[in-house]
Design brief:
Layout: E1 2-9, E2 15-30, E3 73-87
Antiparallel strand pairs: 1-2, 2-3
């Protein structure tokens, strides 16, 4: 999960606004075409990526359910933006 924080200072109001963006990535159904070599289209029905090993190893990139690489699974990105403002002692 990536977390990014941005601080915006505005001169006239004496307040600063802090915006935090949290990004969560998950991998959905497998989209590998197993019949591409014979000119057809067939997917295996794997509904969600499950890592075969611990994070940081090569096995973490292989799906335990279907054996495909993580890149064959649909990537779904969720971003949550939260914003808060507080009084600032700095006047620009």
């Amino acid at each position: 999960m990536k977390k990014r924080q941005v601080v915006v200072r505005r001169g006239g109001s004496g307040r600063s606004t802090t915006t935090s963006v949290s990004t969560t990535v998950r991998y959905g159904e497998c989209q590998k075409n197993h019949a591409a070599s014979i000119g057809g289209y067939a997917v295996d029905g794997c509904r969600e990526f499950m890592a075969s090993g611990e994070e940081g190893t090569n096995a973490a990139l292989t799906c335990a359910a279907c054996g495909c690489h993580r890149n064959f699974h649909r990537r779904e990105v969720d971003e949550v933006v939260s914003e808060s403002s507080s009084p600032s002692s700095n006047n620009f």
